[in-house]
Amino acid sequence: MENYNHNCLVFATHKLDEGILDYLSNLKKEVEGVMDLLILYDRSNSPIKREDHPEYNFYFFDSTGLKGFFHQNERLLPNTFVALAECAKQYRYDHYLLMENDIVLHGDFRRFVQRVNAEDAVDYIHIATDTEGSPQKHWPIRYIRENPFRHLYFSWCHILYVSHGFLTDVAEFMARNDSVYYEFLLPTMAYNGNYLVRQFENFGYRFQVSWGPAELYESKYMEERIPDTFYHPVKDLGIVDWGAGDMP
């Protein structure tokens, strides 16, 4: 695949139903001329053919066979960063904006992408908001062993932005020590290392995000619709009004 832009929006999904296809159609229009769009597709449950969707570029992987995708073999802890690291070996960009298929923005997504894309020197942009309040409140911490870092951090990874260099460094650490779940590892490596870090909140964005339940955050999205706010998880994409200032 030829790179038309220096940076890439990587949309992670395991299905291509009507809601996801609507989402992708809008994303493609909103990132045009700013970032490339690549679909990081887990075909373990719903395999598809590339030729059935010629308008999109794909990187296919199988989560059941990808080492480390399920952190410490825990099915509740998929590690999408592992798939991104494999993808980056084939698709080389300066930066990757990785997002899950169930996070939505009430606001102008093109403006969001333009703001992020302008950060040429940054290594990592992340979600700072955490309603739990500290890394110790997140149960995957119990898997960490031989922690070499002085300070431990946590960040939700529903959406994140990484440079190729930082991605490579994180992947190399994972190869040596696979005990640190990526929602701990990325911010911890970034803040303990010599990396340029920013937070999406620095650009004026807010987050209503957690693990769920989806019904709660879908309700928040429907009732609040706070400008420039991301909501996760929103499983029912049918509630998103793409043409009324929502994402994109």
From TrEMBL:
In which domain of life is the source organism classified?
Bacteria
Its protein name is Conserved domain protein
Organism of derivation: Paraprevotella xylaniphila YIT 11841
